[in-house]
């Protein structure tokens, strides 16, 4: 895989868990934030938590998003959907020619209905990323992975992660990132157009989570064995 | 559960598999078709297949949809989405006060993208059913269950079936229907609004099926044990 991996907006919900899991897998991680100090602080916090586990890891570095985007070979967008349209245009040149993974789920909480999906003009958060980063190669995934479960480092994830994308290299890279998470198996979900289904599935999982008081994920049944993973 | 169960448009893809599984579970099934002769023929065919398995079952009966809707206590709509708007208005009075389960997935095959979801004015196939049957209690589910796997009667399904609905009784009934399928576990997916996510998930599964040459289903991870099922 092309390294290092940037987590853009990596100080939020999904970023720290991914950073810790990737760092334990030996991957150099760059945590980007809107403000450099927050990126530095988040990286310090992550490294402290990792040291406490007494398991080997590559120390995480943190700074602002522009720094992370410039130095990275692969970037994962871990900012909430509402933030990506403001963040990405300024990073488009730094991310040109690189693989960028979209993870956002456009949603809101409705008083009556609970979690509901919010329509995106481009069709999905992932397709909005593709529109904002025309020189990058886009894949989408990690939508159904619980941030809370990701942070429980002693736990194997035991779930599948559907990856969609129109660019084979981007899709392969995103699937390699999934394989860095113990117990997780990447599943090829086809074209980037399908990211909308994967994003909306997460809204359904959030309803299930509220009812069963859990952090659910998904597994697909009847898949052939994955030759490259044990998940 | 209120019996018997009608399968409206039950001669299509999903109907025969459900009919056979329900009949083996001891449930009287009424297979409805647009034409009475087709309903009769489908029931005869289903009973013949069931007899060949040498396992006990309640013989399935078949006729037209109006007959099935009138005699049933619970109805499952197993006609393709394109057919339901024409079929349901004429059955609305017969289905008044009854539980009706929506299973359709609004979709089409695109030459470039493969299977794609088709937007529904009401928000989902299930919400269209609710609009067309204002005096019935609607739940939605079975979207992700493969018709092909359902027909392999010797196979346990080993999958979860997400049920959505605004009416508790309808949801409970739909979940009981899932429990009739060996190996399947119902999962409460919240309000009927969420049927759109469950319907679209199936489009994603069809892309996965094309890539992996399989008939995939889903399981949710991290759920608490289901007190009423072994699935």
Structure description:
- The structure is a homodimer of 231-residue chains.
- By secondary structure, the first copy, chain A, is of the alpha/beta class.
- The first copy, chain A, is built from 8 helices and 11 strands.
- Chain A has an 8-stranded mixed β-sheet, sandwiched between helices. A two-stranded antiparallel sheet of chain A has the order 6-7.
- In chain A, helix 1 (14-24) links the parallel strand 1 and strand 2 (29-33).
- In chain A, helix 1 (14-24) crosses helix 2 (36-52).
- The longest helix of chain A has 18 residues, at 195-212.
- The radius of gyration of chain A is 16 Å and the shape is globular.
- The A-B interface holds A 113-114, 116-117, 146, 149, 158-159, 162, 187-191, 193-194, 196-198, 200-201, 203-205, 207-208, 210-212, 214-224 and B 113-114, 116-117, 146, 149, 158-159, 162, 187-191, 193-194, 196-198, 200-201, 203-205, 207-208, 210-212, 214-224.
